């Protein structure tokens, strides 16, 4: 009788807001290595803006899952503020204070490390951002803690655009312990209907990422949601509805919609007409599309995956993950 092949062990991260339902968090915990609590803020002077995340960190630790604190420069409207980033990065004393405050918070809450998620960093602050992450890693690693960084889905070093220019893949790969690629949001709430994470686009990002960062430092982002667009789409006016994957599937069944599968994007979609006679298109993830994404982990030799986000549970998704991989506990 042939021996059963041992499954590859991978790291699995999931982002969660403190508003996550306890039953949802508990459903996810067996399939997570890390849970990243979203998000802490900071002031220009380097003071930490606390997150009441004990309802995530406590159950996670009890289940053998390590909690990471996510640090973002979000303003009071929930938008990324690159002027706040600039003020911090151009003040060495504030950076030192911030790193000390991060370390103190991790110790106080018995967490495992920090995930830096600074988006729309100005190009002139790129290297300063890399240096901040490096300084944090040196300080935190010496104390036994982890530093990760979430990066925009770049396909080349010189890629233009504010989302990309402030993120140095090679530098950040050297600065942080792990890099989380945000390989999602091609299809997004304000954009035209398309797959959230088309596999051909995800491959382009991974091809570039592994040329700059050792694959065993990379966690590939996977979306745990879909979008429903009303048709016709009108740029600047239309806004798609975000759906859980269970709701996306249930909606197709409710309207008797035929689900199609885009071969290039390796993603499902369907059309339906609602009770008011309005046409819709839905792009989402299902077992087939998630399996296609998960296959990339072994193909590229990645460290694992990172779900954005785990606010809804998709049992079929967890089943396909367990079918393919063993989830590491650290």
Broad CATH class: Alpha Beta
Q: CATH superfamily name?
A: Glycosidases
* Discrete helix count: 11
**Approximate shape:** globular
Name the helicity range: 25-40%
Provide the β-strand percentage band.
15-25%
What CATH architecture do you see?
A: Alpha-Beta Barrel
The secondary-structure element order is EHEEHEHHEHEHHEHEEEHEEEHEHE
Query: In angstroms, what separates the terminal alpha carbons?
Result: 33 Å
Radius of gyration: 20 Å
CATH fold-type name: TIM Barrel
Taken together, the total number of domains comes to 1
Q: For the largest sheet, list the strands in their spatial order.
A: 1-2-4-5-6-7-8-14
Number of strands: 15
Describe the structure.
Pfam families: Glyco_hydro_18. Residues 1-327 form the GH18 domain. One of its GO terms (molecular function) is hydrolase activity. It comes from Anaerovorax odorimutans. Keywords: Glycosidase, Hydrolase. By secondary structure, the protein is of the alpha/beta class. The protein has a single domain, classed as Glycosidases (TIM Barrel), CATH 3.20.20.80. The chain is 35% helix and 24% strand. It is built from 11 helices and 15 strands. The protein has helices at residues 22-28, 54-62, 82-89, 92-108, 126-142, 162-165, 169-175, 199-212, 245-254, 287-300, 315-324; strands at 8-16, 34-42, 48-49, 66-71, 113-116, 146-151, 178-181, 218-223, 226-231, 241-243, 260-262, 267-273, 279-283, 304-308, 325-327. Strands 1-2-4-5-6-7-8-14 form an 8-stranded parallel barrel, surrounded by 6 helices. β12 (267-273) and β13 form a beta hairpin. The radius of gyration is 20 Å and the shape is globular.
């Amino acid at each position: 009788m042939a021996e059963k092949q041992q499954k590859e062990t991978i790291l699995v991260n999931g982002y969660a807001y403190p508003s996550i339902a306890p039953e949802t968090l508990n459903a996810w915990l067996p399939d997570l290595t890390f849970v990243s609590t979203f998000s802490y803020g900071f002031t220009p002077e380097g003071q930490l803006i606390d997150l009441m995340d004990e309802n995530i960190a406590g159950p996670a630790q009890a289940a053998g899952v390590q909690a990471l604190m996510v640090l973002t420069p979000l303003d009071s409207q929930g938008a990324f503020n690159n002027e706040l980033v600039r003020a911090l990065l151009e003040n060495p004393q504030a950076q030192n204070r911030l790193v000390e405050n991060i370390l103190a918070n991790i110790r106080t809450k018995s967490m495992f490390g920090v995930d830096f998620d600074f988006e729309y960093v100005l190009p002139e602050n790129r290297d300063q951002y890399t240096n901040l992450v490096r300084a944090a890693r040196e300080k935190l690693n010496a104390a036994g803690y982890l530093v990760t960084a979430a990066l925009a889905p770049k396909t080349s070093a010189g890629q233009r655009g504010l989302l990309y220019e402030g993120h140095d893949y090679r530098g950040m790969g050297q600065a942080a312990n792990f890099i989380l690629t945000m390989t999602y949001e091609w299809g997004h709430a304000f954009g035209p209907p398309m797959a959230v994470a088309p596999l051909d686009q995800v491959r382009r990002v991974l091809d570039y990422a592994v040329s700059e960062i050792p694959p065993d430092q990379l966690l590939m982002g996977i979306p745990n949601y879909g979008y429903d667009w009303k048709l016709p789409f009108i740029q600047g006016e239309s806004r798609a509805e975000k759906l859980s994957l269970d709701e996306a599937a249930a909606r197709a069944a409710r309207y008797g919609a035929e689900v199609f599968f885009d071969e290039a994007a390796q993603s499902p979609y369907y059309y339906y007409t609602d009770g008011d006679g309005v046409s819709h298109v839905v792009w989402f993830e299902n077992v087939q599309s998630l399996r296609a994404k998960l296959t990339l982990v072994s193909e590229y030799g990645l460290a694992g995956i990172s779900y954005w986000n785990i606010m809804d549970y998709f049992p079929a998704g967890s089943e396909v993950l367990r079918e393919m991989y063993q989830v590491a506990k650290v």
